[in-house]
Structure formats: structure tokens, C-alpha cells
Model the fold of this input.
Amino acid sequence: MPFFPFKQNWRGGDGIFSVPLLSGKTVWLFGDSFVLDFDNKEAGPNRTQATMVANSLGISECGPEGFEVDYFFRQSTTLVGKHLERLPAAFFLPPPQASHQRKYWPIHGFEQGGKLYLLLEEVETTSGPENGFNFAIKGVTVAEIVNYSDHPLRWQISYRPLSQSQTTIPGIAIVKSGDFLYLLSFREEPSKKHPLILNRVALSDLGQSPWPLHYFSQDQHWKPGLDGPDAEILVAEGATEASLHFDKNSQKWVMVHTHPAFFSREVVIRTAPQLTGPWTAQVKQIAFYSEMRPESPDYDKNTFCYAAKAHPAFSEASKRGEELWLGYACNSLNFETLLRRNDLYRPVFKRLTLPQLELYF
Done:
């Protein structure tokens, strides 16, 4: 089972997107992350002395001792008085000319043709609440890495724009099928229901910039562009994070995401015979987030959980469709609680077994 200990000055993160590699390793993508200063060797397993950076990276491998993971983020050097101080920084950094309010949140990625492609949401801090929080998504960038077998801090990363749309956000889940790359995308609407549409690009066109995306339309055709008024809505009430994978046992595509209602304790699992649908009406894993149950020993009314995704690459039984590992994170509306409780704001994994899965498939 994936387990993410506090070590190497990493003290937690959300997002929790996994990108399995052919080498057997997995790249983990985290959003806002708590990290310690590089020179801090005595803080212990807590966050009271931590800094939050926009993103961090993990590389895991299943070795003789089981699941093992290493964390990576960068450092910046700042002149404080007459001394240079090393301060932690995000792993993925916007260009120097970008607004100091701009940052990257990783969303998903894939391996293709000897390259690693990672998609990054461009996020900007705002003065007022957007989407219920003080940030707004300004577009999506593709990070392309050729030497991804090297140490991550030696990666040579090329950043290329994918979309500057603030209303349709592509690539929250990505799968390859046949000659195409398929991207699950959500619409940012005032209703906050985040309807989901489907994009694709030919694998042979990944060298183009930006990628020539097509969207799936209501008349069951692929049309040029990111979105259109005739785009087929796969899911009317979706999410800003999700996972997609093909289940060999049922021969169906599976989508997993947190229920769109804020403070929901439910995870939604949907299936479809094709990526284009039709997708089942939502099936809920009732009260999946035990941290939000009033009867839980650690229950706190300010705790909320989110970022649910399936990670089927982490057991042979999962690959056979006999079980499914779901990962997620929990947060708190009280920042002091977040600093104090190490069980919050870190990846949590739970297993659904075949009898439970049969309810959905």
C-alpha cells in the first residue's frame, strides 16, 4: 500500500496524482506542500516550522522493503542582511517574468516516446474569493522532460502552453488509448458543478505547440478546439480532480472523483463502455471519508476531505480488477489545526475489495 512518511523535509501535500512509468517507478504530483528549510535538521515530524510551496514531487518504487518514496522540491537563495539564506521553493516554477502571484499546480501526466509529459495548472492568487477560495486558474502548461530517468533536480524541463482558457481546464485525468491521448476536462462555471467534457490529441501530434486538441461533440464527432457550445457533457456534475482507468475485469472505463458538494463525505465511482460514454449516473461510496464522520475518534467539524482518485497500478489484484486503491487528502478550515495534526494534509489510501466493487461494475 502506498504510504507517505514525513522525511527529507517534506511535511505533506495534496493533489496526489500518480504517473506510473515503464521503469516500475511512479511519479507523484503534489499541489501546495508543507516543506522545511534545507538547513532545518531538528524540527521533527511537525509543521510548525514549515513553509508552504506551490508544488512538490515524489518518486516511488516498490522494493524489497515494500513501497518507498523520495520527495523533491527546490531551493532559492535570498540575501537576508549580510547573509545568504537557502529557502525552499516549488519544484515547478513559472518563468521569471510571470507575476509573483502566479504558480503551478500539477494535475496529471504520462510517458510517451521517451519523454515524460506533466500538465500544470497555472494558478494566480486573487484578493477575493474565486470558486470559494482566493485563487483563479489562468490556463494549463505542459512540462516536457526528456532526461526523466535522472535525479529529478537534474531534469531539463521545457514548458509549453497548452491552453489559456479560464473556463475550460483540460487534462485533470489523462489516458492513452490506440493512437490518441484522451484528456478529461472540466468547465469552470458559476454553478460550481464542474461539468466534464472529453478532449483528445493524436500521439503523433505531441510535438506541436500547443497541442491541436479536439473535443467530442453532441453529434458524436471530434471537432477542432478545446471546447464548443455543442460539446458533449460526459458528466453534468463533475469535479476539478478525477482519475480515469480501464478495468480489465469488467471491460469498462472507470472514473473516480469526490462528490462535487463541498464538505461531502462521498466518493463518486462511474463506469462507461467507452471513454465517450455513456457514463453511469453517480454511484456513491457512502461516508467514504471516515475522518468526516462524527463518530470518528479524531472528528473535527472543520475537517474536509477531497482529491479522491483511483491508483490501480499498485497491486496485481488491482490490475485484475479484484480490488481498487483509492487515494485522497483531508484538510482543515482551521490553519492552526492543520499545523498541529500530522494526519491531515497528506495522502491517505483505502482499499475497495471485489465484493464492494461489484456494487459499481
In short: Residues 1 and 315 are 8 Å apart (CA to CA). The chain has a mean pLDDT of 90. The radius of gyration is 20 Å.
